[in-house]
Amino acid sequence: MDSGNEIDLPTRADLASWAAELGFDALGITNVDLSDHEPHVQAYLDAKFHGEMGYLERNLQKRLHPEQLVPGTVRVISARMNYLAADTRPLEILQDSRRAYISRYALGRDYHKVLRRRLAKLASRIDSALASHQYRAFTDSAPVLEKALGVKAGLGWMGKHTLLLDQSVGSWFFLGEIYTNAPLPIDTTQATSTDACGKCNACITVCPTDAIVGPRVLDARRCISYLTIEHKGVIPEPLREPIGNRVFGCDDCQLFCPWNRDPPESTEADFKPRHGLDDVELIDLFKLSEAQFLKLTEGSAMRRIGYEQWQRNLSVALGNGPATSEAISALSVRVRTASPLLKEHIDWALSRLANPAKPTSPT
Fold first, then answer.
1. Closest-CA residue to 66 (of 144, 142, 1)
2. Rg (CA), the chain
3. Can you give the pTM of this predicted structure?
């Protein structure tokens, strides 16, 4: 690789400085050994907790062995970027059944685009200091075990809600990785964070659908983020009421985590809410045409779902809201031309609004 000559490696301070200039809040370097995480990953898949997310099974060996995904990889640079914008008032929105709750990570520009561009710039900067080496950047876009790599790189510990946690910033951050064959020194300046969840079970207790079935074990098939984003079909009826007004994702396990009591606010302009989606009425979103929906979600992570799925989610939320004449009228008009999938959820919503039921626990 180096013809026997000693390589002049960039210092840890250099890497941290370059990352900070690009908006990253922390960076760590680790090797590619994920053997400690392999049993957990396999047990999760064997239990079918991943639901319809078949991509988690595909290329599993490449996910567990970074050097198989990008041949020659010996180091992974893991970087994180805070994303929680100021003044989005999540708890206030959740408590108002007329308004739509959208996971805070999706309020701004698509994070895949933001982080991938910054990671590419960071890789280029490293390459300029250490030529003739290979770099490839990822952001939730390939078979990469991001959280495990983040733990190994010293960026936090795996919380009981299965998200990476750091005592100083909580969990409101994105992760991105750079795979490289450059023999960078493994980061030893920051010790791998110890598990500081302790006896706290706040995230498990507060989950609306009881999706966290044990510490660090999430049954995605019950998770509201999965149901509203990844799941394309019929939402199981017992889980519709607990969804409440959440129409894209769910943040409850983060909102009630003690380590997120005072989270840092992101200064990244791309993560600021767009189109007023941090405070919008459900009925206004439901009335959007498909063309209007596509315009609203252009450049957003919300493009992950289509118009039918979007209206499905909104129908459930409207059914969990107040029985206003406007909501009943809008649902009644839409059901006439609805697909069988959407019709099922609208019929459920209309039935709920006609006969409000007492809250029940998910089964």
1. 144
2. 22
3. 0.92
Residues 71, 162, single domain; the answer is yes
Same domain, 44 and 163: yes
Calculate the alpha carbon distances from 288 to 104, 232, 236, 312 in Å: 21, 20, 25, 13
pLDDT 10s per residue in the chain (363 long)?
344 445 567 788 889 999 999 999 999 999 999 999 999 999 999 999 999 999 999 999 999 999 999 999 999 999 999 999 999 999 999 999 999 999 999 999 999 999 999 999 999 998 888 777 889 999 987 999 999 999 999 999 999 999 999 999 999 999 999 999 998 888 765 445 578 999 999 999 999 999 999 999 999 999 999 999 999 999 999 999 999 999 999 999 999 999 999 999 999 999 999 999 999 999 999 999 999 999 999 999 999 999 999 999 999 999 999 999 999 999 999 999 999 999 999 999 999 999 876 544 455
Distance of CA 217 to the CA centre of its chain: 16
Give yes or no for a contact between 331 and 311, defined as CB atoms under 8 angstroms apart: no
Number of domains forming the structure of the chain: 2
Same domain, 70 and 31: yes
Same domain, 158 and 249: no
Residue 224 forms part of a structural domain: yes
Whether 207 and 113 map to the same domain: the answer is no
Among the candidates 147, 180, 213, a domain finishes at: 180
Structural domain span for residue 282:
202-354
Residue 50: inside a domain, yes or no?
A: yes
Cβ contact 302:102 at 8 Å: yes
Q: Could you list the active site residues?
A: 140
Residue 247 sits in the same domain as residue 321 = yes
Place of tokens 């030893």: 188
318 vs 306: CA distance, rounded Å = 18
237 & 347 share domain: yes
